[in-house]
Task: inverse folding
C-alpha cells in the first residue's frame, strides 16, 4: 500500500484533483472534510458538535479526524494505496498518522503539495461560494480565517516532512487537466 498526502491551502484544488487521482490509480480517497460534512448531513451527534467549528473556519479536534481515518484504513480492501486529502492539518495529526501507519507496517510515501498564490485562492473560493452551497465558502471573513489557519497550523507540516525527503511540490495554477497530468506523473512513479 502506498500512502500519498495531497496538500495545499483551501481552494488549491486538492478535492478536485484527489477524486481524479483516486479513480485513475485505484486509490482510496480519504477526505476528512467530506467525512465531517457527511456526519453533518446525517445529523449525527458528532456532526452537530463539529458544524459550529467548521462554520467558523476553525479546525475540529485532532482526535476526531484521527479516529475517522483509522477506521477507514482498517476497513479498506483492494486498493493500490491511500490518498489523504485535508489530513493531516496539524503537526500533531501528522505525527499520529505516521504512528498509525507504522503500527500497520506502512509509512507516508509521498507528499504532493499544490502551490497556488493567495490572490488566485481567494478568486477561486469566491467563485466556489456561488456554486457549492458550502456555508464555510460563503463568508469572506471565514475564507480569510481558513487561509490563516492553514498558514499557521498546517503549513508547518511541510517543513516537518521536507526533512524526510517525501516532499513533491506541484504548480497548482493552470488548467485542471494540466495540473492533473503534473500530479499523475509523480504518482505513477510510486506505484511502479
Ligand atoms: P478546504 O480544503 O476548502 O479547507 P475541507 O473540506 O478540507 O475544505 O475542510 C473543511 C473544514 O472541515 C475545515 O475548515 C475544518 O473546519 C474541518 N476539517 C477538515 N479536515 C480537518 C482536519 N484534518 N482537522 C481539523 N479540521 C478539519
Result:
Amino acid at each position: 500500500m502506498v500512502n500519498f498526502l495531497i496538500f495545499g491551502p483551501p481552494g488549491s484544488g486538492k478535492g478536485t484533483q484527489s477524486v481524479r487521482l483516486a479513480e485513475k490509480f485505484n486509490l482510496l480517497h480519504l477526505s476528512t472534510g467530506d467525512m465531517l460534512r457527511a456526519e453533518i448531513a446525517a445529523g449525527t451527534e458528532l456532526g452537530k458538535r463539529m458544524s459550529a467549528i467548521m462554520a467558523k473556519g476553525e479546525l475540529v479536534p485532532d482526535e476526531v479526524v484521527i479516529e475517522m481515518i483509522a477506521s477507514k484504513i482498517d476497513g479498506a480492501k483492494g486498493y493500490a494505496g491511500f490518498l489523504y486529502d485535508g489530513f493531516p492539518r496539524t503537526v500533531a495529526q501528522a505525527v499520529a498518522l505516521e504512528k498509525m501507519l507504522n503500527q500497520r507496517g506502512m509509512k507516508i510515501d509521498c507528499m504532493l503539495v499544490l502551490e497556488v498564490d493567495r490572490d488566485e485562492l481567494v478568486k477561486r473560493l469566491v467563485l466556489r461560494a456561488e456554486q457549492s452551497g458550502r456555508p464555510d465558502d460563503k463568508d469572506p471573513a471565514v475564507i480569510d480565517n481558513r487561509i490563516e489557519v492553514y498558514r499557521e497550523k498546517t503549513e508547518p507540516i511541510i517543513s516537518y516532512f521536507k526533512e524526510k525527503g517525501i516532499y513533491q511540490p506541484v504548480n497548482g495554477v493552470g488548467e485542471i487537466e494540466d495540473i492533473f497530468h503534473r500530479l499523475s506523473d509523480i504518482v505513477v512513479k510510486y506505484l511502479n
